[in-house]
């Protein structure tokens, strides 16, 4: 007998088992499980390319990376041609801002500078910053 090979007795047992009613159920369940896994993968891949799926991914990354919540306080008011980043105005709330504007103020004081810039543009986000930065 090979180290990983099956004896004739084991082969006969497996053959009888998979032809029994219980063995047929096990085979069917395994086939359905693998096809369902494939369906889930395809669904997730398609979902994460939709605008809603992209928002979900951004929220997950923000929570993991910096322990921040991701609650949008408004929908995206900009046209679809303008790429949008979501700016954390505090540790909880995010607001959509154009990518060029958002990345204009990077560095240590990013949140303060961006909040001031957004206030000057008329977003009036000071009401969300009562207790913190």
Could you please describe the fold and organization of this structure?
The protein is mainly α and about 130 residues long. The protein has two domains: about 10-45; about 50-130, no CATH class. About 55% of the residues lie in helices and about 10% in strands. The protein has helices at about 10-20, 20-45, 50-65, 100, 110-120; strands spanning about 70, 85-90, 95-100. The longest helix has 27 residues, at about 20-45. The protein starts with 7 loop residues before the first helix and ends in a 13-residue tail after the last helix.
Write the layout of secondary structure elements.
Elements (H helix, E strand, L loop, with lengths): L7 H12 L1 H27 L3 H16 L4 E2 L11 E5 L4 E6 H4 L7 H11 L13
Parallel strand pairs: 1-3
Antiparallel strand pairs: 2-3
Amino-to-carboxy terminus distance: 72 Å
What is the overall number of helices? 5
Fraction of residues in β-strands: 5-15%
Poorly predicted runs are none
Order of helices and strands: HHHEEEHH
Structural class: mainly alpha
Strand adjacency order, main sheet:
1-3-2
What share of residues is helical?
Answer: 40-55%
Q: Into how many domains do the coordinates divide?
A: 2
The pLDDT mean sits at: 83
The overall strand count is 3
Q: How would you sum up the major sheet?
A: 3 strands, mixed
| Rg measurement, Å | 27 Å
